[in-house]
Amino acid sequence: GAVVSQHPSRVICKSGTSVKIECRSLDFQATTMFWYRQFPKQSLMLMATSNEGSKATYEQGVEKDKFLINHASLTLSTLTVASAHPEDSSFYICSARQGAYDEQYFGPGTRLTVT
Amino acid sequence: GDSVTQMEGPVTLSEEAFLTINCTYTATGYPSLFWYVQYPGEGLQLLLKATKADDKGSNKGFEATYRKETTSFHLEKGSVQVSDSAVYFCALSERGSQGNLIFGKGTKLSVKP
């Protein structure tokens, strides 16, 4: 099946610094990528949807200036958490989809801890 | 808005036991329903899906039937294995594969030998 990778798998950073998380589709071209956030014992919450070459669409309540998403190529999307604070600590998961009718394939997630 | 509710875990079973994980949903339209599985250290994988009422999705011995009258999509397996230990997520999408996925909180299953 299709493979989506995320890097890093785990990151610890100090409050006030920015962190970049990469999401790559390894064996297919992803026209759409999704970013989710998961709190402990909670469901995955969609943060934003990005289409290659265009601006991301953010869900209500998600700060676009804090969570910067770039989808510059058909195989790579990045999520940058700007000026991270402890409340941004969470598990971030990306998924990728080749076409509008295709299944989403999920990455393994990135655990962000802000100290 | 749309939502998915699934039974809280963790669920611990012995090998070869029968598994049921309950899932109910709230939706304004006629959603597609999904079960995803997440094995330790891996991304979510689609386990099975159903796109309309009375459809039964099945895969790897797991089954779930789309019940519109009870707004449910319970996951079942007749005989679980240790390798089935994972977290299971129920999800819906209002526009099939095109729509955004709305997930339940996940149910962790541990199967003991």
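Residues 56 and 65 of chain B are 4 Å apart (CA to CA).
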